């Protein structure tokens, strides 16, 4: 069984696979390695500095012709420094602040353009203003500007409409937009100096109503890596499995902390599947629980970082935790359970099947689970049969439902089963 734990270095610039071969690396050189799409500049401090956005790269360079390809082992010699910022004279805005900033030096110092008159007097136009994700704001420093006594407090630079960065294709071939293993590299050491955000998830014990919490730190660049990946499930849901990121090292750590909850006195004997399910349900519960399909599916890290998600987002998160759990406790026997995404016409849930060595339904284990579920909840679990397997259903959006319980309005409806694999 293939097992890869991945670490990503932000949403660094995706580079076409052409560049010049490296000779001796010097200060000012642009470098990349075949295993990763990030582009770096070697600074006078001897560190490599990443371009976090293509718009930042192209504010300084016209093409990739001078980028050198170096072996990964050579790239890792250079310690990671701070990100490259927009070139002096560049304009940008951030989503939540109604201001336009001008970069006034190459160290990321910026100045707020306070009036429309000043904006045009400097010779600027709307097309010059770029969008900067808020999580990169820490790369910049705003200078203090003292407003003239006669300046109007009601005038400011006009804010252009939000834009979406697009790329043009030279042919009509549609390829899988998701990264392959070859594009990814495990670089734990690079995350040491990256700002992190602490996120809390909680579980409410139904027997005594005590609240248990788990905390996880998510690097900002790690979140932005996922935020800037393609977000499509495909016309025929052919990419739906890509959102179950069971090889994510941060989610492995989250799974470990959730397992620790089961070891506490109050939770002993409680099914780990129910603990994982209720962590997902309680942390992202919405009054309008049946949220339906969103046109913007999220990866589990996005759901945790943003603190909300629709039915498909919560299903991706729960399925990921389930797969990680079995891969962690019994990696040689992880496939004794088969997990699936259960897709209704307007809803998504998760299914679990017990499998024997021949790949057929393990009736003995299934019977044990049914008896256990009956003793805990005074009812038999709900499941769907497909290809000889019995998939126990899990509803991820409402904490009123335990593992194996299906909402009444979904009963009797047709369901498509997307089996997941390691």
Report on the architecture of this protein:
The protein has 422 residues and is α+β, with helices and mostly antiparallel strands. The protein has a domain at 195-419. Helix content is 21%, strand content 19%. The protein has nine helices and 17 strands. The protein has helices at 54-58, 72-75, 116-121, 220-227, 249-262, 272-283, 300-306, 311-329, 363-377; strands spanning 20-21, 30-33, 36-42, 48-50, 67-69, 91-93, 101-103, 109-112, 129-131, 141-142, 196-204, 211-219, 337-343, 348-354, 383-386, 389-394, 416-419. The strands form four sheets. It has a five-stranded mixed beta sheet, with no helix packed on it. A five-stranded mixed beta sheet has the order 9-6-7-8-10, with no helix packed on it. A hairpin with a 5-residue loop joins strand 3 and strand 4 (48-50). The longest helix is centred in the last third of the chain and has 19 residues, at 311-329. The radius of gyration is 25 Å and the shape is elongated. The model is unreliable at 1-22, 145-194 and 287-292 (pLDDT under 50).
């Amino acid at each position: 069984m293939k097992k890869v734990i991945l670490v990503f270095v932000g949403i660094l610039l995706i580079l076409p696979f052409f560049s010049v071969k490296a000779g001796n690396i010097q200060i000012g050189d642009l470098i990349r390695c075949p295993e990763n799409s990030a582009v770096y500049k070697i600074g006078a401090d001897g560190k490599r500095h990443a371009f976090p956005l293509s718009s930042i790269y192209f504010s300084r360079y016209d093409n990739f012709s001078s980028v050198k390809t170096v072996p990964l082992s050579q790239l890792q010699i250079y310690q990671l420094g701070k990100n490259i910022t927009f070139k002096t004279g560049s304009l940008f805005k951030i989503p939540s602040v109604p201001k336009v900033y001008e970069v006034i030096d190459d160290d990321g110092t910026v100045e707020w353009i306070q009036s429309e008159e000043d904006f045009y007097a400097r010779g600027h136009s709307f097309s010059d203003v770029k969008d900067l994700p808020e999580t990169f704001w820490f790369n910049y420093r705003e200078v203090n500007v003292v407003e003239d006594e006669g300046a109007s407090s009601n005038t400011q630079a006009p804010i252009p409409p939000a834009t979406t960065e697009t790329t043009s294709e030279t042919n009509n071939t549609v390829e899988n937009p998701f990264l392959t293993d070859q594009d990814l590299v495990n670089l734990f050491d690079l995350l040491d100096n990256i700002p992190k955000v602490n996120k809390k998830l909680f579980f409410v014990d139904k027997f005594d109503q005590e609240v248990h919490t788990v905390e996880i730190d998510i690097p900002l660049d790690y979140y932005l890596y996922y935020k800037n990946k393609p977000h499509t499930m495909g016309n025929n849901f052919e990419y739906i499995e890509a959102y179950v990121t069971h090889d994510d090292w941060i989610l492995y750590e989250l799974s470990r902390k959730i397992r620790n909850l089961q070891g506490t006195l109050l939770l002993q004997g409680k099914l780990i599947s129910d603990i994982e399910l209720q962590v997902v349900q309680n942390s992202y519960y919405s009054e309008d629980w049946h949220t339906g399909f969103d046109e913007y599916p999220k990866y589990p890290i996005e759901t945790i970082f943003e603190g909300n998600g629709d039915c498909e987002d919560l299903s991706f998160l729960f399925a990921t935790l389930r797969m990680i759990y079995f891969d962690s406790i019994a990696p040689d026997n992880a496939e004794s359970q088969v997990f699936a995404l259960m897709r209704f016409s307007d809803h998504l849930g998760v299914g679990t099947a017990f499998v024997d060595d021949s790949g057929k339904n393990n009736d003995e284990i299934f019977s044990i689970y049914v008896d256990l579920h009956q003793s805990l909840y005074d009812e038999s679990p709900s499941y769907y049969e497909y290809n000889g397997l019995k998939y126990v259903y899990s509803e991820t959006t409402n904490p009123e439902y335990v593992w194996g319980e299906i909402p009444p309005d979904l009963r009797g409806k047709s369901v498509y089963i997307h089996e997941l694999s390691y």
